[in-house]
Amino acid sequence: MIKIRLKRYGKKREVSYRIVAMESKTRRDGRPLEELGFYNPRTDETRLNVPAIVKRLKDGAQPSDTVRSILQKARVFEQVNA
User: Fold this and answer.
1) pTM
2) How far apart are CA 31 and CA 27, in angstroms?
3) In the chain, what is the straight-line distance between the N-terminal and C-terminal CA atoms, in Å?
């Protein structure tokens, strides 16, 4: 199963995340199938590749809980259902 989840990177205590699509059995910082966006929790900055995310969701990818809330704030699910 393909999951859309966060991949951690950055220095200690200055963490940032990439939003990636990867196999559910892959370790957290393993090689992703595709990078779909960026999330910085310290500044609440978010950059999303919306067409790629919509394509992955339509193909059956499941977002993690955190990614789901990020996508809901960006109103990505409205485009999936349309």
Assistant:
1) 0.89
2) 8
3) 24
CA 51 to chain centre: 13
3-class secondary-structure state, position 56:
helix
Query: Collapsing DSSP states into helix, strand and coil, what is residue 33?
Result: coil
CB neighbour class for 75 (10 Å; exposed up to 12, middle 13-18, buried from 19): exposed
* pLDDT, one tens digit for every residue, the chain (82 residues): 999 999 999 999 999 999 999 999 988 888 999 999 999 999 999 999 999 999 999 999 999 999 999 999 999 988 887 6
CATH of domain 2-81: 3.30.1320.10
